[in-house]
Amino acid sequence: MEKLHLHYPAGAPAAQAVLVGVVASGDLEVLIAPAAAGSCHIVIHSAADGSAARWRAQLDRLFADGQAAAMQMEINDFGATPGVVSLRLAQALEELSA
Amino acid sequence: MLKPYLPHDLLWLAPRSALATDTELPAWLPQHWHPGLPVVVRRASSRPGWIAVGVRGPLRWQRCALWARLQQVGRALSPEQVAAQQGWRQHPRLAALPALQALQQLHPALQASGLAWGITGSAGFELATGQPALGPASDLDLLLRCPQPPARAVVQALAETLAGLPCRVDIQLQTPTGGVALDEWLRGGRVLLKTASGPLLLDEPLAAWPAHRQNHVEQCP
């Protein structure tokens, strides 16, 4: 079990809380709560050790530009494939801005 | 015509059979797999004469995606066949493994659902092979065959019986087009469908049962 914290700059607080995904093998759960303006804090709990570099690369692509809403994001990964991870993250951000 | 295999089926390959891989084999593979152990059919687009399989590694998140020659498949065991054997009842580690106790407790409700069901994941592997794969913290993975959309009341009742069990139980609905998590289907709204060509988000969950595929089973060509 690996726990990874990532911090990014962000914009105004997210407008709502979001939950997508499921606690199930090969899937993941993404929970988003609004945070104070300017801060995006992501905590990843992953079943797969040694996955930190992959997570960092994937989340940098989405958040490094600081344009996302300010949020606290928790990701619980149960061995999701990269395809499932991308889809779930896209789904979470889409529902956040819906 | 070779018999089609379904995702999660366990396959025993003929001795000396060739497994092919798209990437380098992980270091653990030679120590943890030999032809006496089954491989697990996984979802992937077809290659003529080959079937996409996975091999379990020593740690629960370790899997290796491989291809096996269809001609070298000896024996196959489906998740339903593993369930029908009811191997948990006589299992020497029943008292130590919450996943097997959960199976024992859930069995009447699964039978009452009227749906074909099977055991996958580490519980399925251990029951099929006798090789230890389960630990005290292991979840129980099950599948329900749903050639048509299941009656909501039936699967809702099943989901409610999961609450009091000694471990987490993941139930996947096997639709004609892929697998959907029961929890997400019951929640309403969008669902993630795992198909042979990758995961898809469905805005409308019933799209997993398109009219022309109803009553079909998803196959691994």
Automatic annotation (TrEMBL), chain A:
A single GO cellular-component term on record: cytoplasm
Positions bearing O-(phosphoribosyl dephospho-coenzyme A)serine: S25
A Pfam family hit: ACP
Principal location: cytoplasm
PTM text: Covalently binds the prosthetic group of malonate decarboxylase.
InterPro entries attached to this UniProt entry: Mal_deCO2ase/Cit_lyase_ACP (IPR023439), Malonate_deCO2ase_dsu (IPR009662)
Compartments in which it is found: Cytoplasm
Alphabetical UniProt keywords: Cytoplasm, Phosphoprotein
HAMAP family associated with the record: Malonate_deCO2ase_dsu (MF_00710)
Name of the protein this chain belongs to: Malonate decarboxylase acyl carrier protein
Organism (species): Aquitalea aquatica
From TrEMBL, chain B:
Domain Phosphoribosyl-dephospho-CoA transferase MdcG N-terminal: 7-79
Domain Phosphoribosyl-dephospho-CoA transferase MdcG C-terminal: 93-204
Presence of the UniProt keyword Transferase in the record: yes
Annotated GO MF terms: nucleotidyltransferase activity
Alphabetical UniProt keywords: Nucleotidyltransferase, Transferase
Protein name, as recorded: Malonate decarboxylase holo-ACP synthase
